[in-house]
Design goal:
- By secondary structure, this protein is mainly α.
- Helix content is about 60%, strand content about 0%.
- The chain starts with 6 loop residues before the first helix and ends in a 23-residue tail after the last helix.
């Protein structure tokens, strides 16, 4: 679900999805909404876990204009 959100709402999107899922599960008696609740919850937890895992990652850097020739760098993806 790639939509544009302001920075504060972008950070809160997984928490909002989890709260929406909990509310759908407890408020609704509709079976389809009860099926959607765990999906929303799982997606929210997935986003939180991925953000935590990517928190310590360093992006790949290029040394094309580096004054040191033969300088090896590690690239992580």
């Amino acid at each position: 679900m790639k939509i544009w959100l302001p920075n504060q709402l972008y950070r809160a999107k997984p928490l909002i999805l989890i709260l929406l899922a909990v509310n759908l599960h407890y408020i609704s008696e509709n079976i389809y909404l009860s099926i959607l609740a765990p999906i929303f919850m799982g997606y929210g937890f997935f986003v939180i876990i991925m953000r935590i895992l990517w928190l310590g990652r360093v992006t790949a850097l290029s040394d094309l204009n580096s004054p040191e020739e033969g300088h090896n760098t590690n690239h992580s993806v």
